[in-house]
Amino acid sequence: MYTKVKVAVIGYGHLGKWHAQKVEILKNSELVAIVDTSSESRQRAKEAHPGIIITDDLSSIMDKINAAIIVTPTSSHFDLVKYLLTNSKHVFCEKPLTETFAQAGEIVQMLYKHEVVLQVGHSERFHEIFERLDDYSAFFNHSGMIVMNRIAPFKGRATDVDVVQDLMIHDLDLLMHLFKEVPNRVSSIGFKIRTQKWDHVTSTFEFSSGRKAFLTVGRNYVKEVRSLEVTNKFGTLYIDLMNNEILLASENTTNTKDYVKKNSYEKRDHLLIEQQHFYRSIIDMKHPIVDARAGRNVIKLLDKVTQSLETGDAIRID
Asked: Where are the domains of the chain?
């Protein structure tokens, strides 16, 4: 086995550019190639990464790499992942893993036949606060009400997809990851404001444990908010994911003047941490931190939210 993973970045748009930079600076990876179908993107890559192979033909560099990072439009993910797995290459695929639940299921089945690492890019998991959940176990291990907001003024980006695929996907992954439970019912309401796709959506999820979660995402809001709030009999925990702050109002605080305790946590480079985990999984041949099943489960919830939006009905999640 190797100690330095030879990597190709597939897709050199805004996010692909950042991924390529991380590959270059990490000690366990070597940037071998950048693949993009756009001549303009290839030119930018040549200027930023002299000496690296820049090509529009993925097949031409397959014998030179151990792994690839997919940072292309979602519609291309399925075919690219299949091709790379068939050629025994390790894969980091940005979210979502595929367009459909059926496609994601096929990828999961393929992994039984190929001893490679496939990691999905759900970067919001890597907030430092989520490594300290034992400090707040009363809120994550007991039933309660969850409120998650990911809303911002219109920026004109990612309008090729709706806000469920672009934004809510982050919170759906966090919801299942943090609370270790899959919801069994969802009802949604949404509005098409700036585009012909859903620009603002609120979904209500019900759990067999009695939890309820209210997720709101939007790209035409009056201010930017990214937050996670949990309220139950122990009080309220509010995590400001934009400003890296924690506010806690616990049930055993009697001082009415300053009963809200405020702390902060370290701001980190989530892309860098994701890639570090990816290369360590390859070198040590261990399970990836965000695997294909997690990616598939998020896509299932995406489908159910969309179904609820289109029908106006509450939808069972089996």
From this structure: 5-123+270-289, 125-267+302-316
- Name which of 15, 302, 304, 13 is nearest 162 in CA terms: 302
Burial class (CB in 10 A: 0-12, 13-18, 19+), 222: exposed
List, for the chain, all residue ranges whose pLDDT scores fall below the cut of 50: none
| pLDDT at residue 254, as a whole number | 67
Considering the domain 125-267+302-316 in this protein, what is its CATH number? 3.30.360.10
Fold of the 5-123+270-289 domain = Rossmann fold (3.40.50)
Task: Single out the residue of 291, 304, 290 nearest to residue 100, CA to CA.
Answer: 304
Q: For residues 26 and 6, is the Cβ–Cβ distance under 8 A?
A: no
- Cβ atoms of 295 and 95 within 8 Å: the answer is yes
**What is the model's pLDDT at position 114?**
87
The tokens of 152 are what? 């911002």
pLDDT for 256 equals 67
**How high is the pLDDT of residue 71?**
97
Q: Cα dist. 74→59, 96, 99, 104, 190 in Å?
A: 20, 7, 6, 12, 22
**pTM of the predicted structure, to 2 decimals:** 0.93
